[in-house]
Fold:
Amino acid sequence: MRTLNRAVAFVRLMRPQQWIKNGFVLVGLVFGHVLTEPTYLLRAGWATLAFMLISSAVYALNDTLDAARDRQHPSKALRPIASGQIAASQALWFALTLALLALWIAYQASAMVCALIGMYALLNIAYSIGRSEEHTSELQ
Structure:
């Protein structure tokens, strides 16, 4: 049972309820009039999956950086890292694994998708770290 609870905690950390937004990658198939082209469907599927994984990696990083503050919030205190279900070090390794997997999957779509996923990751990592430092300086 404990293993199942940990697995559920890692899935919750990934925030799958947010993945619906990544479906917008598929809109290009409609507007590009290639909705029935297998090659484009496959590449769009890879790209969508890559965005799901990279966004989950960013959520894991962000929750790690925000854990202390989240513990003070009534609902955010229930998140896997803030509640102690997942250690911060485990969450960071999980985020790194998800990011590397996302980049590999993105490359299956194309080098351009891989570059876009990489830029998305760098932008969000910079934002999360900057936001975390801002909150840390407010506490001092």
Remarks:
- The CA atoms of residues 16 and 57 lie 11 Å apart.
- The chain is about 75% helix and 0% strand.
